[in-house]
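check this one:
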Amino acid sequence: MEDINEVDIEEIETEKQPVTEMTETVEHNNSTTTPEKPKLVKLPLTRIKHIMKMDPDCNLISQDALFLVTKSTEMFLEHLAKESCKFMGMGKRKTVQKRDVDAAIDNIPSLCFLDGALE
């Protein structure tokens, strides 16, 4: 696995910079800008809650549980994407394809539970 031409993940992570969005609010005909709080999660919480409620054993979902499931889902998807990106780099391509995701699932032990999930 060490022989793989890996995309330098550390370089990609250092390029990430915190995003602070600005929104314009109008107060008494005066245009002012106020910074928004940066979001802690990127996936929509309502969609995750809806998926969680599909389980018949799940009646109530606390906000803390919803946040933790959403954040862990984001972290898992990021891990899967990074591993798939390594296999993309081996093929000297710039686009991640299904075969890269399949290769990551087949070769990374922590992802073996996904075997057959994309079929």
Notes: Helices lie at 9-15, 45-53, 63-90, 98-107.
